């Protein structure tokens, strides 16, 4: 059994909450601003490093708070040098994955929202493990601070963020959105809303809520099957939120926010990569003007499926184009470090 820590995780607080905490200790809000700077600009990893704060504040912080720095349990690098993957240790026995991709001109972090996942997609290493627990706000934010600390040492800054690591972000809605607000804070990490992409398997109430709350982050939807019957074979959660309800939620999102949705399709040989499958996608999405991101399957030990051949992927793309749907095939760079969702954790 895990015990609940009475300490406050500073990475779980918005700037206003941090200010409130510091003021509640009879200290000036100026110090709160300096502290915020230490957390998100300098990305220091200990209270001792916050040398410009008054000693009384540092003593309070040490006694009442934690600086949720997540130790690296395993770190791997892709042979092309562009991708670094971290298995980060949480305060209980859980481990989560965070990935840093440094392609020329584009630096992106991929972070996790849960330890494990309850949605059970058959081809996904995280889904195969099952659900452990939700991540706290502090644990979600600390992943980004971890990569930003590394980037800062090289004079770089994180500009793009994808919530495509372990877990289903809309199943941990409150914590994820509070973390998103912390990422967007213009005097902190200052990551633009549109540069934050949340990928969901299709939690319908979460999509509707996101549309209503107007955070204007980018939304990606993992489709994988374009009829209810086909989708259900890969995505068990389609039983709870059937395809017609899901598409209705997507149309609502697009109409309400004026933003489009990216659709993701993991290509699996012989399962969902035929010309007919592509026509099904075309019929389902035509008129939405959306882009489709095709992801070649990363084979996992718990699923007997193979990745689509290049010719089949090209054929699939050509059919989508007939319906006016632009598509990309994700490059399999970084594959040698098990770049697929949850795969590093699964090998440990
Ligand atoms: N739970 C969310 C976000 C995490 S998964 C979601 O499902 O969208 C991020 C993406 O990786 C999803 O599109 C998912 O389908 C894909 N994915 C998971 N396992 C994969 C694998 N083994 N090979 C290829 N893509 C995979
Ligand atoms: Fe969960 Fe996404 Fe994996 Fe499905 S693909 S099991 S929703 S993490």
Order of helices and strands: EHHHEEEEEEHEHEHEHEHHEHEHEH
Relative strand content: 15-25%
Q: Please count the beta strands (DSSP E, at least 2 residues each).
A: 14
**Which range best describes the helical content: under 10%, 10-25%, 25-40%, 40-55%, 55-70% or over 70%?**
25-40%
**Biggest sheet overview:** 10 strands, mixed
**What is the number of helical segments per DSSP (H or I, 4+ residues)?**
12
Order of strands across the main sheet: 3-4-5-6-9-10-11-12-13-14
Could you list the spans in which at least 5 consecutive residues all have pLDDT below 50?
none
Small molecules bound: S-adenosyl-L-homocysteine, iron/sulfur cluster
Structural class: alpha/beta
What is the general shape?
elongated
Terminal-residue CA separation = 22 Å
* Residue-averaged pLDDT: 93
Radius of gyration: 21 Å
